[in-house]
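Researcher: Sequence recovery benchmark, item below. Answer with residues only.
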């Protein structure tokens, strides 16, 4: 039940329902404020596990619980669905839209935690053929593409056709997401599906990991990067380093190397896990404050995470350019908690906190079942021990007991056994989003504009009603008379 909003009470608006938005809102639970969370989706996404949705291990609900459900017991918080399209710092208002309907929300304090999206480095046309890994839509589309490729390969092979391109999977970007995605596609092809098809040998699938950098997992350091590359190659993943993707089409991908040579890789399924771009909201904030943006669109903030000249506005997570902070969940979580604590101190008349200081808890990435890499301070771990650490950390941060329980059960099925319980894929998952982008006005174009509906012709409606009534009476008679299933004379 939503708490009654008190007139004159301090209004906090939180933009985004990711790690920053959720943890910032929770940190204000016992503060005398009203909190409004504005999210472009109705769920809180545990983004680090998207690749497991794409490869059939977890369901989307296990990594994306309803934001309303998560915050249901926080009486001073409410949730609004909408994509923020404008922030007016002078009037202290946030404008959001959903399906063409605008809503303006005033604030006294603002926490901007809108996160980041996939960057195609100026080649946005690549997105049609190589989905990213930033949303549930991305993961479901990729699930359809990956499992669909095997199905089409089986069909083609049964006809004697060449299916090499259908059994070639290219992952662009050798950061944590790319490494985890490539490792899971390899496990899928070489272990999970190897007995499921009769005309193709899934173990002959080609999995390619491409990156323009000289090593995999650069944030983990040279040693762990080299060990990860060796483990991926043992899994059957072909690692191509120093290769920049210059073109992507429906049929494949072009990789250009430093020596000038280019390579064409014919592949039906491509995954884009390279590069991120901060939310476009940083641009509107920059225009109003003069704060500069870096190449990834992140905005320069003060040491206390506020915008220059606007101490009531905090920006956290992937959107900020401060002290070379990485775009990871912990930066968003710690920054949002810091902002909430500062709001609480101001309302209590206490002096401000010291400048924000990020505590680096390390990095984790899985390579395959029972194999992972971990960087914690000066400690470097690989193999089963690192995998156990990965398991514990992800269970701790999954929101809600039922999500932890469900994920643990699915992990047991996938890692101890061979099965994957979330292999359902539909054409809608693959093509639905593409269809919406081609529709003028997007999804809003499918929504009624408010005109009065025009009913069918009365005579046609009466005739249809009579047909339905007669059909229902016939069904009743067949059941009551016991005639159903009996030979018709």
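Model:
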């Amino acid at each position: 039940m939503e708490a009654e909003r008190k007139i004159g009470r301090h209004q906090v608006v939180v933009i985004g329902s990711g790690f920053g938005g959720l943890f910032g809102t929770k940190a204000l639970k016992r503060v005398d404020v009203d909190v409004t969370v504005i999210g472009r989706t109705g769920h809180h996404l545990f983004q680090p596990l998207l690749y497991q949705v794409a490869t059939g291990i977890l369901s989307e609900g296990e990594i994306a619980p309803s934001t309303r459900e998560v915050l249901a017991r926080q009486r001073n918080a409410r949730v609004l669905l909408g994509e923020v399209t404008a922030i007016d710092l002078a009037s202290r208002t946030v404008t959001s839209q959903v399906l063409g309907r605008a809503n303006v929300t005033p604030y006294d304090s603002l926490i901007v935690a809108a996160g980041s999206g996939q960057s195609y480095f100026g080649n946005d046309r690549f997105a049609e053929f190589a989905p990213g890994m930033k949303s549930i839509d991305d993961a479901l589309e990729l699930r359809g593409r990956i499992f669909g490729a095997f199905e089409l390969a089986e069909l083609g092979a049964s006809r004697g056709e060449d299916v090499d391109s259908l059994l070639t999977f290219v992952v662009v970007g050798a950061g944590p997401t790319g490494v985890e995605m490539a490792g899971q596609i390899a496990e899928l092809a070489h272990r999970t599906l190897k007995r499921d098809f009769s005309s193709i040998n899934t173990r002959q699938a080609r999995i390619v990991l491409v990156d323009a950098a000289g090593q995999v997992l650069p944030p983990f350091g040279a040693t762990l990067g080299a060990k990860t590359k060796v483990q991926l190659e043992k899994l059957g993943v072909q690692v191509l380093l120093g290769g920049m993707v210059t073109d992507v089409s429906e049929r494949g991908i072009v990789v250009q190397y430093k020596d000038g040579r280019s390579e064409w890789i014919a592949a039906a399924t491509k995954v884009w896990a390279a590069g991120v771009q901060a939310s476009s909201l940083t641009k509107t904030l920059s225009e109003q404050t003069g704060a500069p943006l870096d190449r990834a669109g992140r905005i320069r903030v003060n040491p206390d995470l506020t915008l220059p000249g606007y101490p009531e506005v905090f920006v956290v997570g992937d959107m900020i350019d401060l002290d070379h902070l990485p775009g990871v969940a912990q930066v968003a979580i710690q920054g949002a908690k810091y902002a909430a604590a500062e709001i609480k101190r101001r309302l209590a008349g206490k002096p401000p906190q010291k400048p924000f200081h990020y505590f680096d808890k390390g990095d984790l990435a899985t390579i395959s079942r029972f194999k992972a890499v971990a960087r914690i301070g000066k400690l470097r771990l690989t193999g089963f021990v690192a995998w156990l650490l990965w398991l514990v950390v992800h269970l701790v941060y999954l929101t809600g007991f039922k999500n932890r329980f469900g994920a643990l059960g699915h992990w047991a099925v996938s890692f101890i056994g061979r099965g994957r319980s979330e292999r359902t894929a539909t054409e809608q998952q693959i093509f639905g989003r593409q269809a919406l982008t081609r529709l003028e006005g997007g999804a809003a174009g499918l929504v009624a504009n408010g005109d009065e509906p025009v009913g069918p012709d009365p005579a046609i409606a009466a005739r249809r009603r009579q047909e339905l009534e007669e059909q229902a009476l016939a069904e009743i008679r067949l059941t009551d008379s016991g005639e159903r299933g009996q030979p018709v004379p």
